Structure formats: structure tokens, C-alpha cells
Amino acid sequence: MNKLYSASKFRIFAIISCAIIVIGMALGTVFHFVSNGFFNYGGEYSSYKTITVSYSIVELNGEDIDIEEICDTAIAESGANYYSKTNGSSFSDERQIEYRFAVSEDSAALDGAVTAINNKIAEALSQYIGGEIIKTHAQMSVQTGLLGGGFTLWRAAVALAVIVAVQLIYTAIRYKLSAAIVAAVMDLHNLALYAALLAICRIPVSSSALVYGIILTLVTVVCVTLLLERIKRNAKDNAGSIQDAVVASAGQTLKTNVALPVFLAVVSVLFFVAVAIESLSVVAALIPMAMAFASFAVTVYGNVFLAPNVYIFIKNIGTTISKPSSKKGN
Amino acid sequence: MGKVKSVIITALLVAAIIVLTLFATISFGVSGSNDAFMINIPFGSELAGDASVIFYPEGVIAEAKYKSDTFENEEKLKEYEDKYSYVESAHVYVDKDKLTDADGNQSDSFIKSIKSDAQLLSDRFGEKGYSSYSVTVVDDYLIKVSVPSGLTYVQSQLEDVNLRNAAYSEVSHALNYISVDGGLSIRSDATYSKNNNLYQELDKNDPYTFNRFFKGASVFRRGGTTALKIDLTDEGFEEINKILTASSDGTAYLYAGKTSLQLTFTMGTALTEKSMYFQSSRAASEDYAILINSIAHGKMLANELSDVDNENIIITSPVAGKNVAVAVGVVVLVIILLAAFLPVIRYKKLGLVNALMVLTYSIALLTAIYIIGIELTLGGLFAAILGLALLSFSNFFTFEAVRRETALGRTIEASVKLGYKKSMFAILDIHVMLIIAAVVMTLVGVGELSACGLIFLIGSIASFVLYWFTRFMWYVISSLAHNKFAFCGYAKEVEDDE
């Protein structure tokens, strides 16, 4: 444990973090030019293409025609990949299935799928007496989004900034300015690292990404506060060096720093398995789980490895600065 | 504490938890009861699905409507062929004169206006505080608005069309009225006509003179009564009083554009203050307030949009399937039970004290969410579990601090006192900071973030209160135990006999 925390180890962890953040920013910027966004925005915040199939209840001669299966087959044969599918109905009981595709999906393939859907449904209906009176209609459209999402993201960023500022002030009052700087640095570091991981892995950013960003900050607040309180107590109780106090505190808070994110990661897995279980969609579970793991991995790395080293580093700067003045006093 | 007292307090607490849990989960057929409350919590779109509607600007008609209007009607077909041209990419017919340029393409001014209208609708629906919503421009001609259907679990399972329509009344009202366009006016009839406007002295330079009489609108709540409060300017107070006292009988109606807002005045009765109150439900009052504030501040739609007919509203099932709420509910229950009973392995009967607190937290949070009417989403559930993690962490942190004291040879009483004393400031600091963060999330965040912040705020406060209640219950329940070290799962230090 002792070997992990020193001024030289701080440099190594700082270099690792900076490298990941810089790579994330660089890739995000490159993707911004070639792929329409620093992040890979999810369906909520970006434009998308849809195939909408409208139909009335299909029950002929006591048999159901499975319109959804026909549409699924036609879309699969066209080679297009949808990322979400919803079933809907109007108040008059007209049914609707909406398939959502990434905006980069080939329009010609989607038009082909629409034609195939219309033909296959017509063919299926033609086998039944009265089938011609059932109206079905499939069409492709492009939906331009990012109208509500931009505002939400902006307000979330403001909320995060205020939380960091509040922690800085509160920690400065309750502990010391150096402790407050550690808290603020860790909040910003963890958020930047999380954003960089999202940019590097191109995980689609939706409102879930915001929720995990906030949770990451809250967990960081808990872990860093606990570390600072332990350091303060250990420094008071034992007359050793600051480094000894930090090492002892890091050891005492290790369980919490690991257990809390791991518990939340397990909760995330359970949640998203529950979400994916009915739709049998692996993607529906994988994307939020990837976000959750990025968030909790950053929390563990930042709070276990970096936070104690940042504290030692800042204390060392303080000592270096205060040394000449103490000599003057002598 | 005496054993009898200890038993009574513990039994009362356990009974309260059991009774509240039963009320929360089982439906009692008691007259006047509102079914089980737990299943009456409104869900966000991830758990209950969306309600969406497509708006057609004036001059744009759907292909289906074009075909039904012209079906076996040669005269109408000729009229439509002269007036409209077909846009294949959007499957709509558009007015050639109004919306296309000389080359037959979509005019630049129309493209700009449709985007600005979509932005304005986005702003208006954003003020409604939905956990999620989206406003999109469809194929450059139409505007699609999707908001959470806001159904409870029971409502989302309704198959009957009439029952479902009743459940959708709130979302239908919002889609209908927040998207209304046009200036405000007072009219003499419930049906719109050009000639029934009661205020004729329009400023020639301002076609929406009447709008400037309104300062703003808000939802007014007192003692269980909800009303829409509209504040008037000095000029508005004078002018509207003139209109209302011009005739001694009849009813006047407040309009936005061509739509009556279902807000009425009794003619012959003058206003006594510069605020008007109209009794209506909270949701309806919110819708009217958003609309009136937008119009009064000059933010009006550039295009006249199609009316929202209930038949046009599409209700979608959750993306993850119709039964996703049940699956997530089971997971939450498993997490609560694990958080409650897993610690028993390490802390023995002290773990049961923690279990009581976890169950109390869960019931308290559920009740708060129901009473406040917070729309529950996956993020919100996660915030609730984060609060549960905070409570468990606070308790375990202190239990371990007490264990360290017992390891030094102290009695349980002394160890509890010292353990709580030593961990108090860390727990206090963490809770204070998290409560401030939750307040910031609630007030600064919008949509789901704000709802998560509110749930986490309640969770953090409950966690801190229950942290101290744990100490009390520890004292109460451990009074029954002969061996207090065994009660807590701590090893007793053996004293050397000299």
C-alpha cells in the first residue's frame, strides 16, 4: 500500500489520466468533424431515421396476421439495423410500429425495406377473404432532433459546476484550502476521465450518461470527504509525517472506495438485465452498462489511486512554498 | 432501558412497517380508498411509454387525408390538384403558393419558420418539467412532439379504449393546449368566430394588442385547491374591466388564437384585483400557464398548426417492452431485501436493526414519491438506491468504528458512544454535501435530472434521520440481549486474570 502513494507515484498516475483525457479529447474532436459530434449522441439527442408502419387490427377468419414479424423480416432482409422498436396505438385503436435507425443508415436500403414491408403485408392479406379492406401503410422519414436535449445537457453541466463549487467551499471551511483543492481536482478529474472514456469508446450518450455523470460526482464527494476526514484524524492522532497519515487513511478508506462503486455497478447490471429481459435486446442492456462501468471504473481509479497522491503532491507544494518563509523567520 | 419498554417499542416499529407495507402493496376494497398507492405512481417513458403527436402546419396535409378528401369527388380532386403538390420524401401535399418557391422547392422562409416553431414548442414542453420529451422536425415539413404518457402501472395495462382514454386525459390536454398558436382574446361564445371578439380596439401597428394586457400566469395552490392565476398589467386591468362590465349577463371566454381555453368570465362582474383565478386541475393549470406566459411574452408560433385530435395521439409501449416496470420492480425488491438482510451475516442481530432501517427508508421514500407525485424513471430508482447505499454505508461505517473500540477492550456502551462520536463528523459532512448537491440537481437540472435530484434529496435526508434512529433502536433492541457482544457479532476481548 505504502508503495502506491508518494510524490513520484502521483506523476505516474497524473500522466496516465492526462494521456486518457487528451486521447479522448483528440478522438472526440476528430469524430466531431467526421462523425457529427464530439460524443456519439444517442437517439434522445440526435437526428434519426424511422420506418413507421401504421395498420388497423388484423384478425381475419379468426386468425392473427403477425404484422410485426413481417416487418422485422423485411427490415432484416434489407440489411438495415434498427436500434429501437416501439409498438403504439392511437385512441381509435390504429396500431403503429416505429423502427428507429441511425441517421447514417442508407436511405435507399430503408426505402427498399419500406417497399418490401408494403408488398409482404399485401401478399399476406391477399390470402384472406376481406384482407383488401385492411389498411396498412409503411413509410420512411428523417427526424431532426437535438431540440430538447441541448437544453438538458447544458443545465446538467451547470448543475455539475455548482456541485463542484459547493464542495470546494464547504471543504475549505470544514477542512483546509489544500483539502478543498484536492476535492475539486478529484471531481473535475473523474468527470473529465469519464467524458474521455465516452468519447474514446463512442458509447452512445443519452440521458443515462448524464445520470451516471452525476452519480460519479456524488460517489466522488462521499469517497474524497471520507479520505480527507481520515487524513485529518490520523494526522491529529499520530505524530508521523503527512505521507504516513495519507497512506494509513487510504488503507482505511479502501473498502468503502471499492465497495460503493461495486455495489452501484451490480445494481446497474441488475437494472439493465431487467430492462433487456423482455425485449431480449442485448444492446438495450449493453450501452447503459458500458456507461455504468466507465463511470464506476473511473471512480475507483480516481479515488483509490489518485486522490491520496494528489493530497501528498499539494501538501508538498505547500511545504516547498512555506520553507523559505520559515527560514526568514529564523 | 427495561425489557418491557424495549419489546413494546420494537413491536410498535415492526407493526408500523408491516402495516404500511401492506397498505402500500395490497389493494383494499375499502370505500373511498384509492387502490394501492404503490401502483398509482406515474412512470416515465422508459417504464410506461410515450404519447406522441404529429403537427401539420397550415398548407401541409397528410397523404391519407388528401386521398380521403378527394375519394370519389372529382370537384375536390381538381381543387386539390390546383392547390397542392406532392412531396414524395415526406408523403405530404403542400400548398404550392404558400410553401414552395418559384422552382417548386420548399421555400427558405418555411424551412426557417418550421424550425423556429419546433424550438418554441420544445421550450414550452420543457417548462412542463417532463422527465424526458422530444420535439423533432419530420422530413422538414412536420413537427413531432413526444412526451411521457405518465401512466401508472395499472393504467398502462388497460386494454379497454374508454378506460385508456380517461387515463390519457392529462397528456392529451398538454398536447392540445401547450401547442396552441395565436394571440389572446376574450370572446362572447364558446365557438370561435371572427365576429365574436369582445375587444375591437386593436392597435393598428400591433395585431396582438390584447397580449400586452397579460403580465403572466402561474399555478395557484392553497389548501388542496388548485387554480390558474393570471396577472394583468394596469392597462389590462382597465380594459378587461371595461369589457366585462359592458354587458350585465352572459359568459365571456378566453381564447388563444382560435382555441377556447375553457376559462370563462361572468359578464357584469368587474375584477377587483389585478389577478384573475380560474379553478382547474394542477396539470391543466400548468398547461394554460405555460401557454399564456409564452404568448404574453411575444413568443408565438409562425405557422398555424393542426389541432390535436385525440385520434391523432399515438401511445407507445416502453422501448424495453410492456412488462419492463414489473421486471425493474422485482430487481428493486431484491436489492432492498439484500441490503436489509445480507448484513445479518456479519453483524448478527445488529444487522436486523439495520434491516428495520432499510425497510423504513424504502417505505418512507415510496410514500414521499407518491405524495409529491414525482414521475418515476430508471434514473429516479437509481437515485433512491443511491440513498439506500448512503444509509447502509453510514451504518456500516459506524458499526466498524464501534467494532474497533470494542477491540480495545471497552464495553459495548462505551464503544457505541465513542464509535458514533468518531464517525459523526464524517457522516455529517458527507450528508450535508450530498443534500446540497441534491438541492442543486433539483433546482438547476431539468427533466429527469431534476426528478432524480428530488428523490435523492428525500433519500439523503431520510438516510441522515435513520442513521440516528439506528442508534436509538440499537439501544432499544440490544436491551433484550444478555450478551451484547454476540448481539452485534463483535468478538469480546478476553481480560487477563492475574
Set down the secondary structure blueprint.
The complex is a heterodimer of chains A (330) and B (498).
Chain A lengths: L6 H28 L13 E8 L3 E2 L2 E2 L2 H12 L3 E9 L4 E8 L4 H20 L9 E9 L4 H26 L2 H25 L5 H31 L4 H38 L2 H48 L1
Antiparallel strand pairs in A: 1-5, 1-6, 2-3, 4-5
Helix pairs in contact in A: 1-5, 1-8, 2-3, 4-5, 4-6, 5-6, 5-8, 6-7, 6-8, 7-8
Chain B lengths: L2 H23 L19 H4 L1 E6 L4 E3 H8 L3 H10 E4 L4 E4 H4 L8 H20 L6 E5 L3 E7 L4 H4 L4 H7 L1 H10 L5 E4 L26 E9 L2 E8 L1 H12 L5 E6 L2 E8 L8 E5 L2 H15 L17 E3 L7 H18 L2 H29 L5 H30 L4 H33 L3 H31 L5 H5 L10
Helix pairs in contact in B: 1-13, 1-16, 9-11, 12-13, 12-14, 13-14, 13-16, 14-15, 14-16, 15-16
What does this structure look like?
The complex is a heterodimer of chains A (330) and B (498). The two termini of chain A are 37 Å apart. The longest helix of chain A has 48 residues, at 282-329. Chain A has a four-stranded antiparallel β-sheet with strand order 4-5-1-6, with helices on one face. In chain A, 44% of the residues are buried. Chain A is of the alpha+beta class. Chain A contains eight helices and six strands; from the N terminus they run H-E-E-E-H-E-E-H-E-H-H-H-H-H. Chain B has a four-stranded antiparallel β-sheet with strand order 5-6-1-13. Chain B has a three-stranded antiparallel β-sheet with strand order 2-4-3. In chain B, helix 12 (324-341) runs parallel beside helix 14. Chain B has 498 residues and is of the alpha+beta class. Chain B has 17 helices and 13 strands. Chain B folds into two domains: 3-41 and 321-488, Multidrug efflux transporter AcrB transmembrane fold (Up-down Bundle), CATH 1.20.1640; 45-316, no CATH class. In chain B, a hairpin with a 2-residue loop joins strand 8 (214-222) and strand 9. Strand 4 of chain A pairs antiparallel with strand 13 (314-316) of chain B.
